[in-house]
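During the reporting period, our protein records have gained a structure token line. One record among many is quoted in full directly below:
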Amino acid sequence: MATAKKSAAKKAPAAAKKAAAPATSAVQDMQEAMTAPLKGAVEKLKSLKLPGVPEAFKNVNLQGAASAVLDNRRKDLKALVEANEKSYKGLQAVVQRQAEMLKTSITEWQSAAKEMPGKDPKEQLAKLDEMGRAAFKQALADMKELAELAAKSQADAFNVVRDRINDNVKQVSDLLKSGGK
């Protein structure tokens, strides 16, 4: 019995390590799959004698360039994930705010309905008219608030993508200025 508990205790940390390993292992496997074809190609491209290719480009570090391209794609994916998260959180905020608005509106109408019985019909109609006008104004204000909330969320997501695009343009511009070195 005691040995069974000890072996189970030893297996628990190992299981936890194995559970964490697939995430990093999957990333490493993907990186390896993307770089494996490039490893041999770098040497082959360097050894080619291509007519009309300037000498400046023959000294380009292709392995470094391939690594930079992979790093940029990783940053692109990270930016897209961040933009999607911001968009999703914004959508959640809009839905949550809509639910709060609906709950408030229902509560107000329920309390007004409880006060109605036993009053003068003219007073009831006047009260309903007043409530209808107030509800319409509130609905317009709520729609404006929701639109602003959604617009802010989308602007935040767009800014993440725009910043990544600007980084890519800057990197390409710098690469062209330096002649690929």
Q: What stands out?
A: The chain has four helices and no strands. Residues 121-178 form the longest helix (58 residues). Residues 82-178 form one domain. Confidence is low (pLDDT under 50) at residues 12-21.
